[in-house]
Design goal:
The protein is mainly alpha-helical. It has a domain at 404-458: 2-Layer Sandwich (Herpes Virus-1). The chain contains eight helices and three strands, in the order αααααααββαβ. The chain has a three-stranded antiparallel β-sheet with strand order 2-1-3. The chain is rod-shaped and about 245 Å long. Mean pLDDT is 72; it is low at 213-220.
């Protein structure tokens, strides 16, 4: 019993100590509550006061700024996409136009080049034929010139020969006229010579017939006759006659020669006259040939003008080709600028995505801060009202589950549609806004999607 009493006393002492501690805790709680009320009265602000604070105003201004900036960036992105579509369409149209123009120009140039090559080959052939004709004509003229020179030399030789023969004939005629007074002596000399020949014949016959005696007698007679003949021959008139006779014989021989060669000389004269006629004829032909050559020269000049036109056309084709190359270089420059604009557009899209991402993060952070503030406020109110913490925990879990069911983009509407490509869920309004603005990428994983990839589901 004593032990029980002592134990009871100890328990009473412990209980009194616990009661004192409880009382102290209550007093502390009361003081804390008073301090809390005092602090709350000092720092608790109404919503109007909170909205009038500088921090909230700056936050609101920054929110408005980022919202307007996001709207401007979105509008700018839409404009850039529209401009990009226009530029791509214009670029495609320009490329197609340049290709068609280039193909048509190449075809026309090729046909023109083929035609020009044909004309050039034809002109070259005509030029070669005309050149060969000119060379042949030159050779013919050279041959004609040589033949004319030969004919002229023959004519001059014949002329000199004819003049020399005429002078010789005149000289022989003069000599014959000078030998006219000695015709009688010449006839007598010829008769004597004939008689002498006859006598020689008779002597030879007598020698065959008669004997030696007769031969001696006849020899004596012949010797006497020969002596008498020598005496006659030694006479000066006979010598002069012999000279005249010799000259007359020469003259007769020359006359016979000229009579015999008269036909030949006439033929030579006729030949020279025909040669002169041919020369005159050739000169007339040359005049006709000159007219033909003038026509040929005009044709050659026309062909040369055509060839110059062909060269000019080739030069124009070369200039057109250089212009086409310049246009292709300009197109390349435009292509480079378009590529640079594409790169700039991609960078701007990246910057806009980063800004939108930062804005979404700030918005999510603001919402999370607001939610945590609301949670703390509700928790504090519940704690101040002395509610059960389990109910508070259940309410928090309900809020968390409700937040999970809501769209993580707008956080106001419940999830109702799913993207099949990435299996992320959002509300219908957010997906429709993405489809309308052509920003068809998942807000969570940035996976591209189309209208066919959106399906609705039911909770």
């Amino acid at each position: 019993e004593q032990a029980v009493k002592t134990q009871l006393e100890e328990h009473r002492i412990i209980l009194s100590a616990r009661e004192k501690e409880i009382e102290a805790l209550k007093r502390d709680r009361q003081t804390l509550l008073q301090d809390e009320d005092r602090l709350l009265s000092l720092f608790k602000l109404s919503e109007e006061q909170l909205l009038e604070t500088e921090y909230i105003k700056t936050l609101q201004l920054s929110i408005d700024h980022y919202r307007s900036r996001c709207h401007d960036l979105e509008q700018r992105r839409v404009d850039l996409e529209r401009d990009l579509d226009k530029m791509s369409a214009a670029r495609k149209q320009l490329i197609d136009q340049v290709k068609t123009e280039k193909i048509s120009q190449n075809m026309t140039m090729e046909s023109e080049i083929r035609r020009m090559e044909g004309d050039l080959n034809r002109i070259r052939g005509q030029r070669d034929s005309f050149q060969s004709l000119v060379d042949e004509q030159k050779m013919k003229e050279n041959r004609e010139k040589e033949s004319q020179e030969k004919i002229m030399s023959f004519a001059t030789q014949g002329k000199t020969r004819i003049s020399s023969l005429e002078s010789r004939i005149d000289r022989l005629k003069n000599e014959q006229e000078m030998a006219g007074p000695f015709e009688k002596e010449a006839t007598m000399y010829s008769n004597l010579k004939e008689q002498l020949i006859q006598m020689d014949i008779l002597l030879s016959s007598i020698e065959l017939i008669e004997n030696r005696d007769v031969e001696s007698i006849l020899c004596f007679d012949t010797e006497s006759l020969q002596k008498s003949l020598e005496k006659c021959n030694s006479h000066p008139l006979v010598k002069e006659y012999d000279q005249v006779l010799e000259e007359s014989r020469k003259a007769t021989l020359m006359a016979d020669f000229f009579e015999k060669n008269e036909g030949h000389l006439l033929e030579e004269i006729d030949r020279v006259a025909s040669i002169y006629g041919k020369l005159e004829e050739q000169q007339g032909k040359k005049v006709f040939d000159f007219s033909q050559k003038r026509d040929q020269i005009l044709k050659l000049q026309a062909e040369v003008e055509k060839e110059n036109e062909l060269r000019k056309l080739n030069r124009n084709i070369e200039e057109d080709r250089i212009d086409l190359e310049d246009i292709s270089h300009v197109c390349d420059d435009y292509r480079v600028t378009i590529d640079q604009n594409d790169i700039l557009l991609v960078e701007l899209q990246k910057m806009m995505k980063e800004k939108t991402k930062v804005f979404d993060e700030e918005k999510q952070l603001q919402e999370s801060v607001k939610e945590s503030y609301d949670k703390m406020k509700k928790k504090w109110e519940k704690m101040s009202q002395g509610e059960n913490p389990m109910e508070q925990q259940l309410a928090e879990e309900c809020d968390e589950l409700r937040a999970l069911l809501k769209c993580n983009t707008c956080r106001t509407r419940f999830r109702s549609h799913i993207l099949i490509r990435c299996m992320h869920t959002f509300c219908k309004n957010c997906i429709d806004a993405r489809l309308e603005t052509r920003q068809r990428r998942c807000p969570t994983c940035s996976e591209p999607f189309g209208a066919n990839d959106v399906k609705n589901f039911y909770l």
